[in-house]
Amino acid sequence: METYSLWLKNENKPIIKKKILSYKKNSKTVLVKTLYSGISKGTERLVASGNISKDQFDIMKSPFQEGSFSFPIKYGYINVGKIVEGPKKYLNKNTFCLYPHQSLFKIDINNVNILKGNGDIRKYLLTANMETAINIFWDTQAKLNNKILIIGMGSVGILTAYYYKLLKFKNVFITDINIKKKKFANILGLKFINFKKIKDLDVIINTTSNYDVLNQSLKKLNLEGKFIEASWYGNRKGHINLGGNFHSKRLKIIGSQVSNIPKYLSKKYDYKKRLNLAINALSNNQLLKLINTESDFKDLEKDYISILNNPESIMHAIKY
After folding, report:
1. Disulfide-capable partner of 104 in 3, 161, 211, 216 (CB 3.0 to 4.6 Å)?
2. How does DSSP classify residue 287?
């Protein structure tokens, strides 16, 4: 049988490749027909532009990646599909897999995450970024009464603010330079605020991949405040200003990245448990509003780079 997948043959040069896929029914693997895949713009843009530093090749490798960050590469980790072959108990079940943009694939049953319910399954395209949001929450170790600001309203920023809301944090705000994104805060009951109008913060979480945000934010933190750097810069260098009251306020800059579970939780959670936690956090159908752009897989070769650079897109769905 034939399967088609998106590859980057070179920097910003996507191509759809055909491959013959063989599958023999067995008890350990299933065959999944992709219904939708999602584009994680920040990471995939870095990959497509060749901005992953060599010392991060191993840590940044996605579970079912083929090729190398030095190209060619098949990359991605947001896939919602239907099981069409395999053990009887899995047949016709919808599943989330950390799989690239590919029309049909076989996968070990241990990497299958069955999606329950009959609603619009597109919301599960947010699973991987909800995992990131949960990891940010864990890394922050915030107290319930902390005053918290999330900067950047891409999918990770919005889902981080939403996860705090789920866990009954009342003093959480979100901001973005694009005022049009305020509507997404309103949809999910989040508190949007102008960056210039907020101060006296206990925690700031940056999801913008902008060094200037870090430098502008430190002065807004209280004594022993935390700045959580949840962006991913790849090999882009920048300047950090540690002058002024950085030391006298005993401020902390903490890097957060989804590839590792915080050490203090490593005995309680593994990657499978964290992923299931993310899936369960997506029960609210209002989250579908975050999937605000969509296109067909057959057009992905010509559309991919423009999708990565679309500032209005929160989560882009690829329909198969």
Report:
1. 3
2. G
The superfamily CATH assigns to domain 2-118+286-319 is Medium-chain alcohol dehydrogenases, catalytic domain (3.90.180.10)
Q: How far apart are CA 244 and CA 209, in angstroms?
A: 23
pLDDT per residue as tens digits for the range 252-285: 999 999 999 999 999 999 999 999 999 999 999 9
Element (H, E) at 296: strand 293-296
The highest-level CATH class for domain 129-265 is alpha beta
In the numeric block, which tokens belong to residue 286?
């209002």
Strand order of the sheet with strand 172-175? 191-192, 172-175, 148-151, 201-206, 221-229, 252-255
Alpha helices in 169-249 (DSSP H): 182-188, 211-217
Q: Can you tell me which residue has the tokens 């996507």? A: 14
pLDDT tens readout for residues 199-228: 999 999 999 999 999 999 999 999 999 999
Query: How far is the C-alpha of 176 from the C-alpha of 178, rounded, in Å?
Result: 5
Bridge-based pairing of strands 2-10 and 191-192 is unpaired
**Taking the CB of residue 91, how many other CB atoms lie within 10 A of it?**
13
Q: Are 127 and 156 within 8 A, CB to CB?
A: no
Task: Please give the backbone phi and psi of residue 196, each rounded to the nearest 5 degrees, phi first.
Answer: -70, -20
Pairwise CA distance, residues 224 & 219, whole Å = 12
Instruction: At 160, list the tokens.
Output: 């981080």
Rg of the Cα atoms in the chain:
20
Residue span(s) of the chain under CATH 3.90.180.10 come to 2-118+286-319
Predicted confidence band of residue 316 (pLDDT cuts 50, 70, 90) = very high
